[in-house]
Amino acid sequence: MPASPRVLIISGPSGSGKSTLVQKLQSLPGLMFSVSCTTRPQRGTESPGKWYDFITEDEFERRVQQDEFLEYARVFGKHRYGTPQLELEKARVAGLDLVLEIDVQGARQVKAKLPEAVAVFIVPPSRADLERRLRERGQDSDEAIARRLERARQEIACSSEYDFVIVNDDLERAGREVCAIALALRCRRRDNEDRLRQILETFGG
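The structure corresponding to this sequence follows.
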């Protein structure tokens, strides 16, 4: 078991399909999907503890002061989101790779603490396509969609900070690509040094 788990970061603008692609990863064994804390209200279809733990602003701030988050951010100047440090420890104990679905701010924080983490950025094929997806969801006002599109522009401009970029213009292909990256993580030399030494010993050292 590695001293610390392999960490795969998935980011992308709202509407890019990153959550759908994270769900594609569930077909792979050996992965643990991080549960984030958030101060936003629970939506009707959501179950606490599945993807999010819903907590108060005061509780979130208490955890910030106690340094309990691996990363955290306030999104659109409203609700706060954070990944508990405990998720990393849970993955280590279980011997699983940890998948984090977080934004650009959070990815920067994680990469600063865990430089070996691998980050994947999901992008839509165009602004027009992203706007269409956001409108089809029927969740946002015109003003909110405009804010999301501007934030998407800013985030895509930061994609050079990521190790991989996946253009989500074909969901099945994009799903295969994100799964391939997750599998490739396990082939890195740094995570196989003990096995390599054992193999070398069979050749006489």
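The radius of gyration is 18 Å.
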